[in-house]
Amino acid sequence: MMDAIEIDGCEVLGYLGWGLIDLPSSKGDMEKRYGMVYVNRGNHDLRDMKRVPKKSFFWFKEFLRDR
Question: Global pTM?
Answer without folding.
Answer: 0.58
